[in-house]
Specification:
The chain has seven helices and ten strands. It is α/β, with parallel strands linked by helices.
């Protein structure tokens, strides 16, 4: 794991890193010592590891709770080179979504890619970060909306270190099978007027989670209009479950 020089502001230390070919960023409290909870954050499609909504929430987790937070660039995003298979599937998905084409074969291809490559990458990042003395092997949470939800559900299914998750803006057509094996507490966000994820698909994904503790937060508005106050609820959720 190769780190760049840290920068610090308002009590938060930010460090960029590379783990093999995966670029990421770690946020921790200034002068942090010892073990603490870790939040893994998955960005949305077309974003990157330091997108404003990712960085703002990460800083809240650090300053309000004393957590560590890690985010990485998804394939074909941010500082990663173009990933031919990821880009092909994503581009074709957008085309078919727009013209009403058949999505099932593309969804199967995408699910296979996530399980084969992206889940192992995230697991390696978690292992590397938890070896740091100021992070340690505390409980892990996951936050991800939109693409971050699609990538996160299979990760949570495969990764026993993750004990709680905030997910949303995703649908059952992509994630239901893995969601049926997710039993950790879940807070799920959906936009009632989402133009990208049909309302029945969001509700079906929420229903698919096997969690005995799960909460649905539905707000009016389109896909990118999640209210800012949901961050307050997210902070309380992780503080309650990761402690």
């Amino acid at each position: 794991m190769r780190f760049s020089s840290p920068t610090a502001s308002d009590g938060v230390v930010e460090q960029l890193f590379h783990l093999d070919d995966v670029p990421g960023v770690l946020w921790t409290p200034r002068d942090a010592e010892g073990t603490r909870p870790l939040i893994a954050m998955g960005h949305g499609g077309g974003q990157h590891k330091k997108a404003p909504d990712i960085a703002d929430r990460a800083r809240r987790f650090v300053t309000d709770c004393g957590f560590a937070v890690v985010a990485v660039d998804a394939p074909s995003h941010g500082d990663r080179p173009d990933h031919e298979e990821f880009t092909r599937v994503a581009t074709e998905y957008e085309i078919r979504l727009g013209n009403g084409g058949e999505l099932a074969p593309l969804i199967a291809d995408f699910q296979a890619l996530v399980v084969r490559q992206i889940v192992p990458e995230w697991q390696a990042v978690l292992s590397a970060v938890q070896k740091l003395r100021h992070v340690g092997t505390g409980p892990v949470g996951y936050w991800g909306l939109s693409l971050g939800c699609v990538l996160g559900v299979p990760l949570i299914d495969a990764e026993p270190r993750i004990r709680a998750a905030v997910l949303g803006l995703g649908g059952a057509e992509v994630s239901a099978e893995a969601a049926a094996r997710v039993a950790v507490p879940v807070e799920f966000l959906m936009q009632w007027d989402d133009e990208r994820v049909p309302r029945p698909q969001s509700l079906a994904l929420f229903d698919a989670f096997a969690s005995t503790e799960k909460t649905l937060h539905a707000n009016p508005g389109r896909h990118g209009e999640v209210p800012a106050f949901e961050t307050d609820s997210t902070v309380r959720f992780f503080a309650r479950h990761l402690g």
